[in-house]
Design goal:
- This protein has 713 residues and is α+β, with helices and mostly antiparallel strands.
- A hairpin with a 5-residue loop joins strand 8 and strand 9.
- Helix 18 runs parallel beside helix 20.
Length: 713
């Protein structure tokens, strides 16, 4: 009854509720723009070898621990001929803020290609790529490119340059929302009705985005968090508002007045929204079980987004329905009269067809999911680099030039640190030169005042090539241990490729705990709601199947290069984020569908009727909501960011399979096979589990009504 009272309050004080949301949105937006963001990517993993190397460098040689920018030069007549112009440009770079050192190509050994046409200078920054302001990096880019021209080509590379080049986006979100509006208009037959879920989502996402900007100043939040939370927030916001609005529409068509329809919608679909939102939040907060600092801020931000969208669906939407309810009611009734179709008739026929022969659709659907899941175990995790950027970007141009002049492995050097080596690292350099897979080695660089020496080794293969990852493991496991036992020194292998391997290994090792926490808590919640053993077991298995299938498709497209996409590793944190988000979203549809089945089961006591009427009442809404999710998530394939493309594809595929294959085929088939056993719970478990009601309190029919309903079924 609390949600019904909330609906009544929103109806009586609708202008106040709308005004409060406007104040929150405007206030948070203005404040966040005044304060500014402080996003920071923290891929540190305490205890890993790459992190130990980074920590040792920060302690012993802070100047060497900052990120670097490569100024890449090309001239067909030879870079040496442009020495005066290059030296003048490098002198200007050394005077810029956040630049601590500039090493030119004419003094550093090996900085000019064998044919003399390509060279590079190294600009060392005073912090990591995410710590140095983007404007300062853009100043470096503009200053360096003043030397471009008259045959000399100047391009810049490095993580800091890539970050400064990234666009603010917006096209993908806009395309997704436009497609969502088209679907909603077709569903409701009213432009005004279609805009309400969108308005609710915009208010929720806009308010949360401002809060996340403020939080980034006190909590470590990754740079990719904002587009990701917009991706999830728009989809979930429209989804939740649509579930409530669809129940409101069905109550109007059943003859309820506007006020009663809104209160009933909030007290029924609203409960499902609350429960579904909580399961998404639990799944996201389960990322804390991984212990990966870079993901915890993302999980917190996206969970906050889901919470705010849930609140907007329960407070803002009823207020908007009060303001526009009369006009919306007329259009809904007129659209229903024009269509002259019994609501849910097609879904009843589908449910009856599946009930009569449940095994063929069940076996076929499961086989499809298993086939799509098959590539997932072969997924190779890593991080995108400049080689994945747009061909016109200066970071990509620099990447290609360095690969052309110095070999593909030059863009992903391995940094090996020797501690306690009495020969200053000479034995280490000699050993690395003879190792298979190493193209070249920079002479050892002893760090003054320490017993540390640094050796940079260039692989024969590109940074994202599987051979480079194999080289990291070979050096750590086979090449360096014998040298350590001979010299008594300690050797650490680091660099971006090694760090990516460490991150991927950490995710893989901790994934079972994460899955157990998320699946276990969600299953307990479902068990408490539906008083059933089999419903949560079925939900867990099917959710894992849909996630496996989506990750399999991501592996095929981005890992194997299907459809002409450049093959490479999948971003190391994408699978766990997809798991958390998809598992929670799958619970949305599970709760909405099964709660209507359970509501009918309690009312009629007939398992067949429960499956049929549950699918009839929710099938259209679930497929419409899924279609909106698919176009919103799929629109992120338009993003130039490879990571967002992977998120968009994975989430779109998972939602599509979940709504079409699982909810429309597998769930009705399984529930038909289980029959009354679907709602069985041992008495001892029933006594200890808390009672969480999603349906409105309504006494079941008497025996005569149940018999009549059974005959009707």
């Amino acid at each position: 009854m609390r949600l019904e009272r909330l609906a009544a309050w929103s109806q009586r004080h609708h202008w106040l509720a709308i005004g409060l949301w406007l104040v929150v949105l405007a206030g948070v937006t203005v404040l966040s723009q005044a304060v500014g963001d402080d996003y920071h990517d923290d891929h540190g993993l305490p205890g890993t070898e790459s992190q130990q190397l980074t920590d040792a460098l920060e302690d012993a040689a802070p100047a060497r621990s900052g990120d670097t920018v490569q100024v890449v030069l090309q001239d067909g007549d030879g870079v040496e001929a442009r020495r005066d112009r290059v030296d003048a440009m490098l002198g200007e770079l050394s005077e810029l803020p956040h630049v601590v050192d500039v090493a030119g190509p004419f003094d550093a050994p090996g900085a000019i290609s064998a044919d003399g046409t390509i060279a590079y200078a190294t600009v060392t920054l005073d912090g990591s790529a995410t710590d140095v302001p983007a404007d300062a990096v853009r100043d470096i880019i503009e200053t360096a490119q003043t030397a471009d021209g008259d045959g000399l080509r100047v391009e810049l590379g490095g993580d800091a340059v890539r970050g400064a080049e990234e666009s603010g986006g917006g096209a993908a979100e806009g395309a997704g929302m436009l497609a969502a509006l088209v679907i909603l208009v077709f569903m409701f037959g009213s432009f005004l009705a279609a805009t309400l879920p969108l308005i609710t989502a915009v208010f929720a996402v806009g308010s949360t985005l401002g809060v996340i900007v403020l939080l980034s100043n006190v909590v470590t939040i990754a740079t990719y968090t904002a587009p990701l939370m917009m991706l999830v927030g728009i989809g979930v916001g429209i989804d939740y508002a649509l579930l409530v609005f669809a129940r409101y529409r069905s109550e109007l068509l059943a003859g309820s007045d506007r006020q009663r329809a809104a209160r009933t919608a909030l007290d029924t679909a609203g409960r499902s929204v609350v429960f579904a939102g909580c399961t998404v939040i639990i799944a996201l907060l389960g990322l804390f079980a991984l212990g990966l600092g870079s993901l915890q801020g993302v999980a917190l931000a996206v969970a906050l987004t889901v919470l705010v969208t849930m609140l907007a669906s329960l407070t803002l939407l009823p207020s908007l329905l009060t303001v526009f309810g009369k006009r919306i009611e007329k259009r809904i009734l007129a659209h229903a009269q024009r269509s002259k179709r019994q609501p849910g008739a097609r879904w009843r026929r589908l449910a009856d067809a599946v009930r009569r022969r449940p095994l063929p659709p069940l076996v076929a659907a499961v086989a499809i999911l298993l086939a799509l899941s098959a590539p997932a175990p072969g997924m190779r995790l890593g991080f995108a680099d400049a080689g994945n950027e747009d061909a016109s970007a200066t970071s990509r141009q620099a990447y290609d030039l360095l690969a052309e002049g110095f070999g593909p492995g030059f863009n992903g050097p391995l940094i090996v640190l020797a501690e306690g080596a009495s020969d200053g690292g000479a034995a280490l350099a000699s050993t690395l030169e003879q190792a298979d897979g190493v193209a070249g080695v920079v002479p050892p660089q002893p760090l003054p005042g320490t017993d540390l020496a640094l050796v940079v080794a260039f692989p024969e293969t590109a940074p994202q090539d599987a051979g480079t990852a194999d080289l990291v493991h070979r050096l750590r496991d086979d090449v360096l241990p014998p040298l350590a036992s001979d010299t008594g020194a300690t050797y650490l292998v680091g660099g971006s490729t090694a760090a990516a391997e460490d991150f991927a290994a950490a995710v893989t090792d901790r994934l079972p705990l994460f899955v157990a926490v998320v699946v276990g808590l969600s299953a307990l919640l479902l068990m408490a709601v539906f008083r059933s053993i089999w419903v949560p077991v079925k939900a867990a298995i099917l959710n894992l199947l849909s996630i496996g299938a989506s990750l399999g498709v991501v592996t095929l497209v981005f890992g194997e290069g299907l459809f002409g996409v450049p093959a490479g590793p999948v971003e190391a944190f994408v699978p766990v984020m997809i798991f958390a988000i998809v598992f929670g979203l799958s619970m949305d549809y599970e709760v909405f569908l099964v709660s209507r089945m359970h509501e009918e089961w309690r009312r009629s006591g007939n398992a067949v009727r429960a499956v049929r009427e549950g699918l009839a009442a929710t099938g259209g809404v679930i497929t419409a909501a899924a279609a909106i999710m698919v176009v919103v998530f799929g629109a992120f394939l338009l993003s130039p960011d490879r990571m967002l493309q992977q998120f968009g594809l994975g989430l779109a595929v998972a939602v599509f399979l979940d709504a079409v294959v699982i909810r429309c085929l597998i769930v009705p088939a399984v529930m038909s096979l289980l029959g009354e056993r679907a709602w069985w719970l041992p008495q001892w478990l029933d006594r200890i589990l808390p009672h969480i009601a999603l349906e409105r309190p309504e006494p079941p029919r008497d025996d005569a009504d149940a018999v009549t309903a059974g005959r009707a079924g």
